[in-house]
From TrEMBL:
It comes from the Bacteria. It comes from Hyphomicrobium denitrificans (strain ATCC 51888 / DSM 1869 / NCIMB 11706 / TK 0415). This is Histidinol-phosphatase. InterPro entries: His_9_proposed, Inositol_monophosphatase-like. SUPFAM superfamilies: Carbohydrate phosphatase. GO terms for biological process: inositol metabolic process; L-histidine biosynthetic process; signal transduction. The lineage of its organism: Bacteria, Pseudomonadati, Pseudomonadota, Alphaproteobacteria, Hyphomicrobiales. Belongs to the inositol monophosphatase superfamily. Pfam families: Inositol_P. Its EC number is 3.1.3.15. NCBIfam families: his_9_HisN. GO terms for molecular function: histidinol-phosphatase activity; inositol monophosphate 1-phosphatase activity; metal ion binding. Keywords: Hydrolase, Magnesium, Metal-binding.
Amino acid sequence: MRVAHELADISGPVILKHFRKVVPVENKAAGGAFDPVTKADRGAEKAIVQALAAKMPNDGVIGEEFGTKAGTSPYQWVIDPIDGTRSFIIGSPLWGTLIGVLRDAKPFFGLMDQPFTGERFWSGDRASYHSVGGGRPQRLKTRPCANLEDAVLASTHPDLFEGDMQIGALNRVKATARLTRYGGDCYNYCLLAAGFIDLVLETNLKPYDIVALIPIIERAGGRVTTWSGGDPASGGDIIACGDARLHEAVLTLINNA
């Protein structure tokens, strides 16, 4: 936990010197798709990896921008320097740095840092939150919501749902939920852990998009799985809920259809 906070303290200034500035944007995708990356993404991940090499030299690293470095310990650090680069490049603060830890390939610890707003969410024995000027860290706790009709649903963007199955699932859930909001990336999951959102539905995630968020949500009282109810640590189609009863109801709705 101490090292993860140190990594966030190191990476934040690297990112912020580029935020809301004119910065070149590269497209990592082919075939007409758009997957942006900036010098802020790469600079932050480089700073984190260099610090890890000094602080935890035996641990492995899985990073979005520079790939995987094998380790000899049971631990792997899973890094997304800016989750929400699309938000970053338009000046929106709905992005964050994700620092996750796998122990024996299982999510063990997670931290989400938003250096612009001065907010940080992390998992220890319990999920916690701290903001600049906010005093002592506050405990995160999901809120009860058993019925989809009462739920607030969040997702990054409907265009990320592809094919009849994914689009149909989103439409069925959205048609029943009380309120649906788009945008947010990793920030949505942290708001779920804090009890402001009930359900996050996403598709085609990579491990670095979700590993750090799993322990935060689970230790706040929520549940995270794939759409089939499986292990979410490898990414894929993801459902996160603050209430296990809601989680079961949404899984049933998606899979029965």
